[in-house]
């Protein structure tokens, strides 16, 4: 028997979709450990795939949840608590924009709002400007790659949460 509930956050959920949302909130922590160096001098990060997928499947609140809980490991590892709010913002805004435009454009729009947060807060914790600018470029490229992957995963995951 499939039980569906109307949630406080405006989307219907079942036991299966609740498990999927929990999975999408935890997986960025694991994927955050995987970083792929490129020959161009920056690193690709893959944790955003799960934040974007949560935003596509569950909207702004799912993106916020995945961005918040999915950032705990990397925030602790880098001693940068600002990462949690930054990724929560990225997930929340992606969820808003993904309802109106395709996921790649939604990610670019959300990142355009998140980037000043990264720029300011990374300098607050003592990162040199050149390093911060490199991180922003790396996160931008990673975000676009992850948006394409999330778009493919969305087609497979949507039947699992309906």
Structure description:
By secondary structure, the chain is mainly alpha-helical. It contains six helices and four strands, in the order ββαββααααα. The chain has one domain: Arp2/3 complex 21 kDa subunit ARPC3 (Orthogonal Bundle), CATH 1.10.1760. The strands form two sheets. The protein has a two-stranded antiparallel ribbon. Strand 1 and strand 2 form a beta hairpin. The longest helix has 33 residues. It is globular, with a radius of gyration of 16 Å. The protein starts with a strand and ends with a helix. The model has no long low-confidence stretch (mean pLDDT 90).
**How many strands in all?**
4
Overall average pLDDT? 90
The name CATH uses for the topology is Arp2/3 complex 21 kDa subunit ARPC3
What fraction of residues sit in β-strands?
5-15%
Q: Radius of gyration in whole Å, from Cα?
A: 16 Å
Largest sheet: 2 strands, antiparallel
Short characterization:
The protein is mostly helical and 162 residues long. Helices cover 72% and strands 7% of the residues.
Name the features:
single chain, mainly alpha, Arp2/3 complex 21 kDa subunit ARPC3, two-stranded antiparallel sheet, two-stranded antiparallel ribbon
Fold topology:
Elements: E1 4-6, E2 12-14, H1 15-31, E3 35-37, E4 43-45, H2 48-69, H3 72-77, H4 82-98, H5 103-124, H6 129-161
Antiparallel strand pairs: 1-2, 3-4
